Amino acid sequence: MTVARVCMVALTDYPADARVRRAAEALVERGDDVDVVCPRTATLGDRRRIEGVSLHTVTTFRYSPDARARDYVTRYGRFVAAAALAVGRLHRRHPYDVVHVHTMPDFLVFSAAGAKLYGARVLLDVHDLMPELYASKFGLAESHWLIRLITAVERCSVAFADRAVAVHRPHLAALVRHGNDEDRLAVVMNVPDRKIFRRLRAAPAGGPFTLVYHGMIGRRNGLDVAVRAVALARAEIPELRLRIIGDGDDVERVGRLVNDLALGDIVRLDHGLVSVEELIPILAEASVGIVPILDDPFTRYMLPVKLLEYVALGIPVIASATDTIREYFDDSMICMCAPGDAEDLAAKIVELHRSPQTRARLARAAERFNAEHSWTGERATYYGLIDSLVAKNASRRRGSRWPRRARISAEVEAERP
Question: Alpha helix locations (H) across 178-275?
Answer without folding.
Answer: 223-233, 251-260
